[in-house]
Amino acid sequence: MTEETVYKNKWFKVLKKGKWHYIVEKNSNNGAVILILEDNKNFLFVKNYRQAINSTLIELPRGYGNKNEQSINTAKREALEETGYQIDSLNIMKLGSIYPNSAILSSKIDIFFAQVTPLDKIQDSDSEVIEIVKLSHQEISKYINQNKIQDAFSLSALSMYYTKIYNTFSYDE
Fold first, then answer.
1. Fold assignment, 31-96+110-166
2. What is the pTM of this model?
3. Where does the pLDDT of residue 18 fall: very low under 50, low under 70, confident under 90, or very high at 90 and above?
């Protein structure tokens, strides 16, 4: 069965193979999501406007990779661009990977967890970010229950964190 490009722009292309259509996003297979914990207290989320759903969301920093960039470097770059925090290589770990929508997207995105202190904030966030939102464990649970955190990247990252990291260690709250 042959594959045919039915639409293409600088960010993605739509392919057709038989009766199926799917999207291939440029540099998405080295894209990353990063869950950042500041001083073992609050997680750093960003508030962004998303045109596709005409809404402002509270979500984790994330983004596409640059050409030949490793996903861990994408995570560190996105953290700096979107939150202003510089992530030390010793304070970041990969939690896993997700396929955001395996029915129509070929993308595989890596999820990272990092720890920072207030001293790691070295610049302001970029213009894409409306504001930085700091949430405790209890607030995250409340925000999820109130549908204030709804994007699949953030929910997946939180799920991986709570099953792989949080349940393994005891944090004082």
1. Nucleoside Triphosphate Pyrophosphohydrolase (3.90.79)
2. 0.89
3. very high
